[in-house]
C-alpha cells in the first residue's frame, strides 16, 4: 500500500501499480523479518523497562543483565533484518539458549513468581522452535547447493578465439582525457608524445 | 503492463502497472523485447542505496522497438526502430554531454534539487536507479518511456539477436570504459577484482586493448572458469593470497592497472577481517559501503599505477589508506559509464565478430520469473552469472 503514498513523487506519465504480484520474499524470509522486528521490539523493552521483567520474574537486582540482553536482542534483530538473515536467526537460537539458562536459575522453590517464570520458559521454548524453523528455512533458501557448478569453459566471448582477440582493438585511440598520468605513459609505445614531454 | 517493481528490501514483485505515457516532446515509448538484471540492481534489492520508493519500476539494461515518438524526437527516431536504451539518460546538448561526459549530463536528472543536495552537483538521470538520479521508471517492464529519446538511444540493425547487443546499454561499455580509463599499454598487467558480468566484460575489454596479462580475482569456480575462458589468469581468494599471487605474477612489482568490478558489496569472510568490520558497520548504518577491494587495490597496485572503479559505490566508506594512495602516486579513475561515447565503436566490434557479449548470459526467463531470479542471482545459485528477462 505504501506505493500509493509514494506516487506523489512520480510524474503523471510514470507507471503506477494497479495490482501487485508474487514477491521475491519467500515464507522463510517473511518469518525472518517478523522475528527480526520481534527482536527489535523486545530489545527496546528490555533496555527501557528492565525492572518490569525482573519484577515479573522475581529476579530483582538483575536489571543490568536484562539491559545487556536487550542490547543482544537489538543485535539479533538488526542482523535478522539484513541480507545476512540466516546469521541473525541462528544467533537468535543461541540467544534463546541463554534466555532459557537464565530463566532456569529463577525456577527456585523460594521464588514467589515461579509460575511466571514457567510461563516465560514456555514462551521462550515456543519462540526457539520458531527461530529454528526460520533459521533452517532461510539457510536452505539462500544457500548455494553443494556439487559441481555448471561449466563455462567454452564461454570465451571471442568468436575468432582468444589469441585473435588479444590486442584486436589496437585501432582504438584512448581519448586524451582518459590517458594515464605521464609517470606510466612515458614508457608507452602508444604515446611517444608523452615520452618527449619533460617531467 | 507488467513490470518488476521494488516494494522494499529484498521485495521485488512482478506487478500490473499503468502503461507509460509520452510526457515531453522529446520522449519515446519503447516496447521492451529483452532486459537484464544488473549486479548494481542488487544494491537496490538490498536497499543499500538510498531514495528508492515502493512502487519504483526496476531495470536499467533493456532494448526493444520504438512504438511511439514525441514530436521533437521524430527527426532521430521513428516507429519500428530497434534500439538499445543506455542506462544513462542524456540530453546531448549540455556542456558535459558535448564533452562526452554523458553520465554527468546536466539536464536529464529531473530531481536535480535533491541530487544537488546529496552529491553537491546533480549527475545524469538513470533508469530505475533511485530518486537521486531522477526516479525514472526502469526497463524491467513491457514498455518504457525514454526521456530525451532523440539522444538517449543506440540504434541497432535488424538481423543481430537481442542477446548480442543488449549489453551495449550497460555492462559492455562499463567494462570497456573501465579498461579504457586504465590507458592499457602492451606491457601492462591488468588485475580485475570480481568476475561478475562487468568483471567479465572488463576482462574481454582488457584483452582486446592488448594488455600483456589479465588477472581475474574471485572465489566462485564457475565465474573463474568463465574468466579463464576469456584469457585471464585467475586467482581464487578462498585458496590463495591475492597480494602474494599478484606480486608473484608481476615479478614482485604489482599490477600497473587495477579494476574494481565489485563496488560497495565486497564478499564478507572471517579470513578478511576488514570485511567483517565493514559488514558490522554497514548493518548499524555507520558505513554504507564495504570497500575491501579498494583497500587491496591501493595496497598491491604498482606505484604510479592506475585504479579504475566501475563498481558502484553508494555513500560513505571507512579506513581507506590515503597514505598509501598518496605516497604511491596512484591515479583513481571512476564514474558511471558514458555509454553513448563508446557504443558506435563497440557495436562495430560486435558486428565484425571481435566479441560476442552474449557469452555471459547464463539464464533467460520470463518477466514473471524475475522476482525469483533476483534471489537466484543474489545467492549465486545455479551457477547464475547473468539473467536476461523476456517481457
TrEMBL record, chain A:
Protein name: Cyclase dehydrase
Species of the source: Microvirga puerhi
Highest taxon of source: Bacteria
Keyword Transmembrane: yes
Membrane-spanning intervals of the chain: 117-138
Region spans: Disordered: 139-199
Alphabetical UniProt keywords: Membrane, Transmembrane, Transmembrane helix
From TrEMBL, chain B:
Presence of keyword Metal-binding: yes
Coiled coil: none
CDD domains xref list: FDH_like_1
Cofactors demanded by this protein: Zn(2+)
Domain Alcohol dehydrogenase-like C-terminal span(s) in chain numbering: 197-268
Key words, A-Z: Metal-binding, Oxidoreductase, Zinc
Span of domain Alcohol dehydrogenase-like N-terminal: 25-153
Pfam families referenced in this protein's UniProt entry, alphabetically: ADH_N, ADH_zinc_N
Superkingdom, natural source: Bacteria
Family, per entry: Belongs to the zinc-containing alcohol dehydrogenase family.
Cross-referenced PANTHER family: DEHYDROGENASE, ZINC-CONTAINING, PUTATIVE (AFU_ORTHOLOGUE AFUA_2G02810)-RELATED, ZINC-TYPE ALCOHOL DEHYDROGENASE-LIKE
Protein name: Glutathione-dependent formaldehyde dehydrogenase
Amino acid at each position: 500500500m505504501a506505493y500509493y503514498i509514494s506516487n506523489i513523487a512520480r510524474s503523471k506519465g510514470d507507471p503506477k501499480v494497479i495490482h501487485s504480484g508474487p514477491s521475491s520474499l519467500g515464507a522463510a524470509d517473511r518469518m525472518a523479518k517478523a522475528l527480526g522486528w520481534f527482536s527489535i521490539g523486545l530489545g527496546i523493552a528490555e533496555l527501557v523497562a528492565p525492572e518490569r521483567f525482573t519484577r515479573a520474574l522475581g529476579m530483582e537486582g538483575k536489571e543490568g543483565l536484562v539491559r545487556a540482553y536487550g542490547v543482544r536482542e537489538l543485535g539479533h534483530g538488526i542482523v535478522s533484518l539484513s541480507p545476512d538473515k540466516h546469521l541473525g536467526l541462528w544467533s537468535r537460537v543461541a540467544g534463546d539458549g541463554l534466555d532459557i539458562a537464565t530463566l532456569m536459575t529463577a525456577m527456585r522453590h523460594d521464588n514467589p513468581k515461579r509460575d511466571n517464570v514457567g510461563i516465560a520458559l514456555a514462551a521462550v521454548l515456543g519462540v526457539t522452535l520458531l527461530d529454528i524453523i526460520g533459521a533452517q528455512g532461510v539457510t536452505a533458501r539462500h544457500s548455494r547447493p553443494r556439487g559441481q557448478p555448471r561449466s563455462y569453459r567454452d564461454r570465451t566471448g571471442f568468436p575468432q578465439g582468444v589469441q585473435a582477440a588479444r590486442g584486436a582493438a589496437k585501432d582504438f585511440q584512448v581519448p586524451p582525457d582518459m590517458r594515464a598520468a605521464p609517470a606510466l605513459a612515458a614508457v608507452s609505445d602508444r604515446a611517444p608524445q608523452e615520452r618527449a614531454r619533460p617531467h | 503492463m507488467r513490470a518488476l517493481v521494488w516494494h522494499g528490501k529484498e521485495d521485488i514483485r512482478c506487478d500490473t502497472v499503468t502503461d507509460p505515457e509520452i510526457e515531453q516532446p522529446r520522449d519515446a515509448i519503447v516496447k521492451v523485447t529483452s532486459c537484464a538484471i544488473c549486479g548494481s540492481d542488487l544494491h537496490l534489492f538490498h536497499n543499500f542505496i538510498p531514495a528508492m520508493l515502493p512502487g519504483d519500476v526496476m531495470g536499467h539494461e533493456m532494448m526493444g522497438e520504438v512504438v511511439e515518438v514525441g514530436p521533437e524526437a521524430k527527426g532521430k527516431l521513428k516507429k519500428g526502430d530497434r534500439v538499445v536504451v543506455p542506462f544513462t539518460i542524456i540530453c546531448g546538448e549540455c556542456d558535459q554531454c558535448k564533452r562526452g561526459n554523458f553520465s554527468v549530463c546536466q539536464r536529464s536528472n529531473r530531481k536535480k534539487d535533491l541530487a544537488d543536495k546529496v552529491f553537491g552537483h546533480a549527475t545524469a538521470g538513470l533508469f530505475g536507479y533511485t530518486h537521486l538520479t531522477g526516479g525514472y521508471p526502469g526497463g524491467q517492464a513491457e514498455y518504457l518511456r525514454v526521456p530525451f529519446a532523440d539522444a538517449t538511444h543506440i540504434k541497432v540493425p535488424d538481423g543481430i539477436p537481442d542477446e548480442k547487443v543488449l549489453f551495449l546499454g550497460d555492462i559492455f561499455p562499463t567494462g570497456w570504459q573501465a579498461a579504457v580509463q586504465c590507458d592499457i599499454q602492451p606491457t601492462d598487467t591488468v588485475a580485475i577484482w570480481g568476475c561478475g558480468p562487468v568483471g567479465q566484460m572488463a576482462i574481454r575489454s582488457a584483452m582486446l586493448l592488448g594488455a600483456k596479462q589479465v588477472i581475474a580475482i574471485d572465489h566462485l569456480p564457475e565465474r573463474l572458469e568463465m574468466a579463464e575462458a576469456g584469457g585471464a589468469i585467475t586467482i581464487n581468494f578462498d585458496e590463495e593470497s591475492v597480494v602474494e599471487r599478484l606480486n608473484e605474477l608481476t615479478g614482485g612489482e604489482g599490477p600497473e592497472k587495477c579494476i574494481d568490478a565489485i563496488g560497495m558489496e565486497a564478499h564478507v569472510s572471517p579470513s578478511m577481517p576488514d570485511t567483517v568490520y565493514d559488514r558490522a558497520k554497514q548493518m548499524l548504518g555507520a558505513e554504507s559501503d564495504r570497500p575491501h577491494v579498494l583497500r587491496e587495490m591501493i595496497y598491491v597496485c604498482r606505484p604510479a599505477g592506475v585504479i579504475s572503479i566501475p563498481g558502484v559505490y553508494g555513500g560513505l566508506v571507512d579506513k581507506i589508506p590515503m597514505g598509501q594512495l598518496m605516497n604511491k602516486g596512484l591515479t583513481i579513475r571512476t564514474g558511471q559509464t558514458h555509454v553513448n561515447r563508446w557504443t558506435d565503436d563497440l557495436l562495430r566490434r560486435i558486428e565484425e565478430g571481435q566479441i560476442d557479449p552474449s557469452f555471459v548470459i547464463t539464464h533467460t526467463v520470463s518477466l514473471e520469473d524475475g522476482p525469483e531470479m533476483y534471489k537466484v542471482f543474489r545467492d549465486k545459485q545455479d551457477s547464475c552469472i547473468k539473467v536476461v528477462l523476456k517481457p
